[in-house]
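Practice problem 4.
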């Protein structure tokens, strides 16, 4: 994986001001970052008044000072929340944030396609597969597309087993139903999420299929494992990162790899594992 743009979730580090956060990320050997505003002590999606008070240009300047690039910005909230009045209010705030994304220089704003689970947008719910949940997702995406077109950024969708877009089939369906607006969708391919609840014997088949069908629309690959990083570093079985590296290298265009769910204490070992230097 020589020469890969290797990034990290900003939330892997303790919340702090942008300048020291940027130094910590660069010192850990990363060239880019996926930013959640919570990593600098702010709400992930500020309301109108809070957003108006944030100098995003200064945030970018301070975070990128050591040579980093802010690849993406989190705009995650529950698009399929069972309380759709709440979801619509959050959609307004998210659209406002997306319109200001160019101030951070990001390629994409990342989304969560949501769950009918009212307490955890990442947790599966039987109603996620209903026509109503799908319709709510598409309805709430509308204002986000308007904002993304104005800001000229991608909306990054990550197939997650607990969400309405639960895997490759649902991702392809989303593209088909969006028509021309699908040009604003870019996929984050997270191998650990893509394999979901399948058994290890099926991992390669599932991953090859996902990278084959979604690879032309991939804008990022997330690096985490089906076990915790500490467990993997200690010798537990997990994903075949040789396969992940090969699939990433075969994508039709370069995309960053962004490390997730690590912490400063294990980042060096995680970085070596992801790059194949372990």
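Answer key:
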């Amino acid at each position: 994986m020589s020469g890969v743009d290797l990034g990290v979730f900003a939330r892997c580090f303790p919340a702090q001001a942008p300048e020291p956060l940027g130094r910590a990320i660069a010192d850990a050997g990363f060239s880019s970052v996926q930013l959640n505003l919570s990593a600098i002590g702010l709400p992930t999606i500020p309301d109108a008044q809070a957003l108006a008070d944030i100098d995003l240009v200064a945030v970018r300047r301070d975070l990128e000072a050591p040579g980093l690039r802010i690849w993406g910005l989190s705009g995650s909230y529950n698009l399929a929340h069972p309380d759709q009045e709440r979801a619509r209010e959050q959609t307004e705030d998210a659209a406002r944030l997306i319109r200001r994304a160019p101030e951070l220089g990001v390629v994409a704003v990342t989304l969560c396609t949501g769950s009918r689970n009212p307490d955890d947008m990442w947790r599966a719910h039987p109603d996620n597969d209903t026509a109503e949940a799908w319709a709510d997702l598409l309805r709430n995406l509308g204002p986000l597309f308007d904002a993304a077109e104005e800001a000229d950024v991608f909306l990054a969708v990550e197939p997650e087993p607990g969400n309405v877009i639960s895997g490759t089939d649902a991702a392809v369906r989303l593209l088909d139903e969006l028509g021309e607006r699908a040009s604003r969708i870019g996929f984050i391919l997270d191998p650990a999420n893509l394999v979901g609840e399948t058994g290890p014997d099926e991992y390669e088949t599932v991953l090859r299929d996902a990278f084959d069908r979604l690879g032309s629309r991939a804008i990022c690959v997330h690096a985490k494992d089906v076990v915790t990083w500490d467990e993997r570093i200690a010798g537990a079985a997990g994903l075949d990162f040789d396969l992940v590296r090969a699939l990433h290298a075969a994508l039709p265009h370069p995309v960053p790899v962004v490390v997730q769910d690590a912490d400063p204490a294990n980042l060096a070992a995680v970085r070596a594992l992801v790059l194949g230097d372990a």
